[in-house]
Amino acid sequence: MKKIVCDNYDEMCRAAADQYVEQLKQKPNSVLGLATGSTPIGLYDELVKRNGEGKIDFSRAHAFNLDEYHPIKQNHPQSYKTFMDEHLFNKVKFASTRIPNGEATDPEAECDKYNADLEAAGGLDLLLLGIGTNGHIGFNEPAVSYPLDSYLVKLSADTLESNSRFFTDGEEQPTTALTMGIGQILAARKILLMISGAGKAEISKKLFEGKLHTDVPACFLLLHPNVTLIIDKAANGD
Ligand code: F6R
Fold it and tell me: Is the peptide bond before 71 cis (omega within 30 degrees of 0)?
């Protein structure tokens, strides 16, 4: 795992944006795996800015998001579809975008379709990941065993608690989600992991031990040959 330690979050976002500039220069029709949550917001802002300045072009790139709550209306304010539209897809032109459908009546069939769509696109060239305080990647929660392809997952108490900040009183928070599986994550040709803030220092330490803690899903990334970690000093424990 290549590690880039940045002074602060803004520097992290610029460093991560540089990776996208390089990726799309090498392969304009890249298949990009994208994440939601607080961590990528500054990166998406930076990509929108650079796109406006003509420094990066996504018009031949294909986006596949990691996960989505289920069940949730696509236009729900807290759906990941809404998040991606607001932060990126309404502002930057992609060749295509794909997010697991939180409205699917048959979630297993939706996962099968997602797997097939991702495979037909040729798999992920560059996958962006954040990490949960419990070590989850995508919505792969700490478990005894991990599905390889997309699946319907029951969210852990930790994740429900930490994501409750996005849901206002009276808004029902889904307790299950559709997520890419660990196999699909590890099949990405390159992975960019962003970790920011003192709240992530403890889980980062687990990752840095260099051991395969099987109850910390992010540790599976230690098995991947091409991971770049962009982390700020606070999360790095400096
Ligand atoms: C989001 C996702 C999650 C988040 C993780 C960190 O699509 O897959 O794994 O990356 O929960 O979230 P933040 O960035 O809000 O701390």
Answer: yes
